[in-house]
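Practice problem: predict the structure.
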Amino acid sequence: MLQFPHISLCEELRQTTEKDYSSLCERQPIGRLLFRQFCETRPELRRCVKFLDAVAEYEVTPDEKRRECGQDLIEKYFNPKSDDYVPEVEEAMMAQCTEALQQEFPPSPMSPTTAHLTVCACQVRATGKMYACKKLEKKRIKKRKGESMALNEKQILEKVNSRFVVSLAYAYETKDALCLVLTLMNGGDLKFHIYHMGEAGFDETRAVFYAAEICCGLEDLHREHIVYRDLKPENILLDDHGHIRISDLGLAVHVPEEQTIKGRVGTVGYMAPEVVKNERYTFSPDWWALGCLLYEMIEGQSPFQQRKKKIKREEVERLVTEVEEEYSSKFSEDATSLCKMLLAKDPSERLGCQGGGASEVKGHPIFRSINFKRLEAGMLEAPFIPDPQAIYCKDVLDIEQFSTVKGVELEPKDESFYGKVSTGSVPIPWQNEMIETECFTELNVFYQDGTVPPDLDWRGQPSPPPKQGLLQRLFGRQVSLTTLYTSNLKYFIYSWVADVNYLIYF
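Answer:
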């Protein structure tokens, strides 16, 4: 049974919470719920929340219905005679919104209608939610000097919260491995789907849909000043519903603002010319790799390599830097245009690298049928939905390697690195889990008369724990996950209430 610890045990965590509206009431899933519960108690705030919800709904409304939705929104919330009128919006802003709606939808007489890891599924005992557990063997990491790459991947996954990038929910360690608990992706990778599901390649509609989702994922990474640098079919995974997520961020790196970086890293055949030449860059290699991937999805082979044909690395790099790719009849005019613009040898001429970033790529005519607002909200159906009974991998060796590491011993000095990786739960994915599994609803209980329950009452301190026997002291070092979950949740609820009151009254 889930039960909260006393609030006094959680107070020290409050010092690390960001005390601003965006963090507390928008980005934090539980904070967003608590804020809405608070607004429900005040009529003037309830009306504002309804208006914000209506605006959000307008953003993801299908194009053919947006004009009607926008007019309803204006009539309901900008009309002083309406019960839902929002006086907080200035008249100048109302006029600007009305004008923008008319310009976007003018009236018309027509009425158109990796080698050192294993991955396995795991389940959180307290909530029942399923995840993928990526286990990195400690000895193998040490043998290959992979500490910095493992820590880098963990820290970047922890920072990024995107529908199109795998999410890190927990990070912990066992005696032999570091464990990253990630989004469960049961649909296999794009490499398997391109080459092992019939004729190589996809039809253009499917390839364009995946390219659009990858573009959104790259946009979310670049927004955090992260360049991915390893975009290739085997790193793009499908979930149960056929949507993709970018995975394996071991080569991703943070790009300082207004600066460039240098590094000849990536996979042969997908590295951009500037990477091959060891020149400086920011995010341009990712848009090149998207061009390579789109080409491969349509053609059924990489633009600079032939499948199952050995070509020396030097020759592949010569093709990348000097030779133009060839296009077959599988490519439409739009597909050819987009691939050529993404595969421009000069990064300054490449689509996505001319100041507009992802918006340049999204604006290409090939995406005219994609409503990106609805795509980013998860409201578009994928062109292919994996069979839940199928296993989308070539063989068992694609899943796990069974070799053991010899001649490597773990030392006490390694503990510092392990401590940096195994930091427990990650806030936003953890909060989503608490909401999805209804733990939040079960635990977020206050008395009807307004009084607080005992675990929130500062006047009563928690009872001291009973003395432990010898066996309990020997075997009781493991942290209770249930205590961890409830401690985190109660702390979040308590500190959110205090911080929102601070924002409102000061």
